[in-house]
Amino acid sequence: MFRLNAMLLLAIALGSISNLLFAQDAVPAPTLSISYFLLANKVPYLEVAVRRKIGRKFQAVKEIPVRVYFGEATAKNLLGYVVTDTIGKARVGLPPSFKNTWDSLNEFKFVATAQLPAGQDSLSADVTVKKAILTVDGAVADGAKTVVGELKERIGNEWVPVKNIEMKLSVKRLLGNLSVGEADTYTSDSTGVANAQFKRDSLPGDGKGNITLVARVEENETYGNLVTEKSVAWGTATAPPKDFFHQRTLWSTRFETPLWLLFTAYFIVIAVWGTLIYLVFQVIKIKKMGRPTP
């Protein structure tokens, strides 16, 4: 009986160990990605991400050191050294010394390498992008408003229109961008232009009715991520919000305290101190009354 129980415990222990080892082996290795961003056709930057796919979801991997290179992964081509944050991402801005290279080339290759903890293979990823510019504008014809997005790439010394590119044309709002029309994306034609009828009339703008149009190309394999904006007077003029911090409200500074709150506070203070002073005088009066008369 004792031998049977011992064999049973040994089998359970071996099963637990094998399950643990299997669970460790089942954890997928992380992956590294690198993306290119260009905002307002100015200084570009790169974003690296380290993630691990568990089931159908991606899990961020933080505190992973990543090196980003221009072209080959050599010391002289190093653009930056970063560490992934809590969401598994990090950004690398292109240094000013890269400007001459940027001006002379029409296509770029960037390489990222990540050093994982001991016992795991290192990661690498690369992206090749073509230099392109994205513009957005608004046009009015016969009372109809149209948002125009245009994408051009540089070939030689010329900027050539790019067709069949999906782009988002939207209006910038406080909590996100709102599409200017019914479609989510619009496709550029042979002239590199994507048109969208503006159907967001009566949108509140600033004091002069200005709103901001946004054109965006996202995760394109050739051109990366491009974003540009332009302000147009297509909105409804709205008065600037009141400065609540300089009015007599509960959330204002102490010098703008509501009058009713000041009255309440002072009344309580006066009542408390008045009661104390009254009691002191009563005690003094009682002591005098208790003294024998000469």
What's a concise summary of this model?
It contains 3 helices and 17 strands. The protein is α+β, with helices and mostly antiparallel strands.
Features of the shown structure:
294 residues, alpha+beta, Immunoglobulin-like, 3 domains, four-stranded antiparallel beta sheet, 3 helices, 21% helix, elongated
Number of helices: 3
Strand content: 35-45%
* Net shape: elongated
Distance between the termini: 107 Å
Write the element-wise H/E pattern from the N-terminal end onward: HEEEEEEHEEEEEEEEEEEH
What oligomeric assembly is this protein in? single chain
Radius of gyration: 34 Å
Average pLDDT works out at 87
- Classify the secondary structure makeup into a structural class: alpha+beta
Return the domain count. 3
Helix content: 10-25%
Q: CATH first level of the largest domain: which class?
A: Mainly Beta
CATH topology type of the largest domain: Immunoglobulin-like
- Can you say what the CATH homologous superfamily of the largest domain is? Immunoglobulins
Q: How many individual β-strands?
A: 17
What is the correct CATH architecture of the largest domain?
A: Sandwich
Taking pLDDT < 50 over at least 5 consecutive residues as the criterion, the unreliable ranges are: 20-25
Largest sheet: 9 strands, mixed
